[in-house]
Write a structure and sequence with these properties.
The complex is a heterodimer of chains A (370) and B (301). Chain A has 370 residues and is α/β, with parallel strands linked by helices. Chain A has helices at residues 7-18, 32-44, 57-68, 80-85, 87-95, 120-123, 138-153, 212-241, 265-279, 319-328, 346-354, and strands spanning 2-6, 22-24, 50-52, 74-78, 101-106, 131-134, 161-166, 174-178, 202-203, 248-251, 258-262, 284-289, 291-293, 304-309, 333-336, 361-363. In chain B, helix 1 (30-42) packs across helix 7. Chain B is globular and about 55 Å long. The chains are: A alpha/beta (370), B alpha/beta (301). Chain A binds chain B through residues 21-22, 24, 49-50, 52-56, 58-60, 62-70, 72, 74, 88-89, 92, 195-197, 200-208, 211, and chain B through 44-47, 49, 56-57, 59-63, 65, 67-75, 77-78, 80-93, 95, 97, 114-115, 117-118, 121-122.
Chain lengths: 370, 301
């Protein structure tokens, strides 16, 4: 069914169709619209979930954990400080192998208070064992949320999934949305280690130095296995509903000499920049990274690479740039742009490419020569 | 299942054990003693949610567990929120399984208070039990909000200056259908209160005094005696509140009329050794004030 929706509403729409048994959430701008919409669906009876209006994000994730371990489907949404506040529990959800699905509306971290888009919040969760995917359109936010449940709950994965969408530039913009009849695309959830008083067991108790590492390895084993499940799920989605995704979305990359790598809405902006550059005779392409965890093998051999990071690891560099540099074993041009909602136009991105200095890092708006 | 009738002898308590042998509890531990009766009262259709506390350790080391019911271990400040999710999930799927938080005083009065307050305010259908050994026992006896004034801990080496936080008043302000105090030294009373708490829909709370031999520095055979002295001195008052209405236990009523000298309770405990005379005086005044307050409230009703 075709409609017009914001990124937030698209996520809520997908959640309504997937029917989690428990949704526990706390409001935070710019995520709030997701939980408001879910609360509305619950009160109208369209969504038969228990909505737990918790008193904090730490409790939101803790409630999802407690609910999920009984073997039922759970969802929550957060942003920025909320995500950081639940950090202890995001680790717990992954370590406990619970397929919680969460939408994270990317927003910067204070001080000062800034409610606009930035990826630093999600980056600070990258080592927790969550699968992380970044979307760029309203349609993609909807489609990916649907797929997130199937991927998280697949018994070869059983890890939580975080669907990231940029604050305001995606959460609050209206675009066309084509909803689907999911049918049996998402099978009923089966949690092999669900709590059962008839088969009592201890969960997450004291685990010694002779055992603990085995559980950590098991997270990584499943993270590696998730690659196949993501591919399968995205293929089945494309076969059923006609929209094809992937670990990356590549735009005019085949014959490109220089490729812009980015995540989220800037990746869409980059496509416009590429068309512009091509007109000028610059053979450029755009690679928008969708899945950040598990981190894919990128096909960038022999190309110059310009990486846009909407995040920063202080004393180290742009997280994306450094990750790509490590994988390619070659230098890139690292641009730090869009922090705290800083405006970055396609013309700016075209300029990053025109004036690229491979091996260097440049902060957009800070260095005079960019 | 035993009804709510008066239990006259300990022999009427079910024989089934859910805290099995070979826990890693210290000798004379009243946490595991209390839990034994809590679980006998709750029965097998129960999930225990345990934040970081002595009970996280007592249950044993993976892959072993000494508890014969499902135990969900969760981070320090998250027990009530986790139980809130679990209870909602069970009820949404038509299950009556008891969800019981079993948390220490640090996990209740300090780091867990926000999540607990939220869960009570939202009317979560669960029982929250705080077993109170008046310090962070598991990490080596640091002071908590529950440590009484004058007690020495590893972070109050000369004795705590501040008074014990009145968590029961805080819980009472949430108007739960049922709340009670209990002590590991009075197992029949504890058993009855747990059974009763589980008959209410919505949140209930039981605050158990759990004397700790290594932490309080008394010899291990005196655990029960210490709990009884706490009650007889009026330092610990056994009561319950049903929809706000206070009923004080007969043992405590008697003690409140004619309490034994507080020194009889404090003297066997190394943590109060050399207590400052002024602090002792304040402790006594606070105790008397609390007794007056509770007596007045019961008379009023």
């Amino acid at each position: 069914m075709k409609k017009i929706a914001t990124g937030n509403k698209a996520v809520a729409e997908a959640v309504k169709q997937v029917q989690p048994v428990v949704v526990a959430a706390y409001p935070i701008t710019p995520q709030t619209e997701i939980v408001e919409q879910i609360a509305e669906f619950v009160s109208s009876g369209e969504l038969k979930s228990r909505y737990i209006p918790v008193e904090s994000e730490h409790s939101a994730m803790a409630a999802c954990i407690g609910a999920s371990v009984t073997g039922i489907r759970t969802f929550t949404a957060t942003s920025s400080h909320g995500l950081l506040y639940m950090h202890e529990m995001t680790n717990w959800a992954a370590g406990a192998r619970l397929p919680v699905v969460m939408a994270n509306v990317n927003r910067s971290i204070g001080p000062g208070w800034n409610i606009w888009a930035e990826h630093t919040d999600a980056m600070q969760e990258r080592d927790t064992g969550w699968l992380q995917v970044f979307v760029s359109t309203v349609q993609e936010a909807y489609d990916t949320t649907l797929m997130a449940f199937r991927i998280a709950e697949h018994n070869d994965v059983l890890l939580p999934v975080m669907v990231n969408l940029d604050g305001f530039t995606l959460s609050h913009i209206m675009q066309p949305l084509d909803t689907v009849e999911t049918g049996d695309f998402i099978p009923p959830m089966y949690l092999p280690h669900a709590i059962d008083p008839k088969n009592p067991a201890g969960y997450g108790g004291l685990t010694g130095p002779d055992q603990h590492f085995k559980f950590r390895w098991d997270i990584e084993r499943s993270m590696r296995d998730s690659v196949k499940i993501i591919e399968e799920t995205e293929k089945d989605f494309a076969d059923r509903f006609g929209r094809k995704y992937g670990f990356t979305e590549d735009y005019r990359c085949e014959d490109a000499e220089v490729v812009v790598v980015s995540m989220g809405t800037l990746g869409k902006e980059a496509e416009v920049a590429i068309d512009q550059l091509r007109k000028e005779g610059i053979r450029a392409g755009s690679m928008r990274l969708r899945w950040f965890r598990p981190f894919p093998r990128l096909n960038l051999k022999g190309k110059e690479v310009v990486v846009i990071d909407r995040d920063y690891s202080f004393g180290f560099g742009g997280v994306l740039a450094k990750s790509i540099q490590a994988q390619l074993k070659t230098d890139v041009f690292s641009v730090i742009a869009g922090l705290g909602g800083q405006e970055v136009t396609y013309e700016d991105i075209a300029d990053f490419v025109r004036k690229r200095r491979i091996g260097e890092e440049s902060w957009f708006g800070v260095n005079a020569n960019v | 299942m035993i009804s709510l009738q008066e239990l006259n002898t300990i022999a009427e308590i079910p024989k089934e054990e859910y805290v099995l042998k070979c826990t890693s509890a210290c000798a004379g531990c009243s946490d595991s003693l209390a839990l034994r009766y809590v679980l006998k009262a709750a029965g097998p259709d129960t999930v225990l949610v345990v934040p970081a506390c002595c009970t996280s350790v007592i249950q044993g080391i993976y892959p072993n567990t000494a508890f014969n019911i499902p135990v969900y271990n969760i981070a320090f400040g998250a027990a009530a929120a986790c139980a809130s999710g679990m209870s909602n999930a069970f009820r949404a799927t038509g299950k009556k399984t008891n969800v019981i938080v079993y948390a220490g005083d640090g996990g209740t009065l300090d780091i867990g208070i926000q999540a607990m307050s939220g869960a009570f305010e939202r009317g979560t259908d669960f029982l929250y039990i705080c077993y109170d050994n008046e310090a962070y026992g598991n990490t080596g006896m640091q002071r908590s909000g529950a440590t009484p004034m004058g007690a020495r801990t590893t972070t109050t080496p000369t004795g705590k200056i501040d008074a014990k936080k009145d968590i029961d008043a805080i819980i009472a302000a949430h108007n739960p259908p049922y709340m009670a105090t209990a002590a590991a030294a009075y197992p029949q009373d504890l058993f009855k209160k747990v059974q009763k708490a589980l008959t209410f829909r919505g949140p209930s709370f039981i605050h158990i005094l759990a004397p700790c031999p290594p932490g309080w520095r008394f010899s291990t055979e005196k655990t029960v005696e210490m709990g009884k002295l706490a009650v007889k001195s009026g330092m610990w008052v056994l009561y319950e509140r049903e929809f706000g209405k206070l009923s004080i236990n007969p043992q405590s009523k008697a003690a409140m009329k004619r309490p034994i000298p507080l020194e009889e309770y404090l003297a066997p405990q190394g943590r109060f050794k050399g207590i400052d005379a002024k602090i002792l005086e304040t402790l006594k005044q606070n105790l008397a004030k609390n007794i007056r307050k509770l007596s007045a409230e019961e008379v009023e009703e």
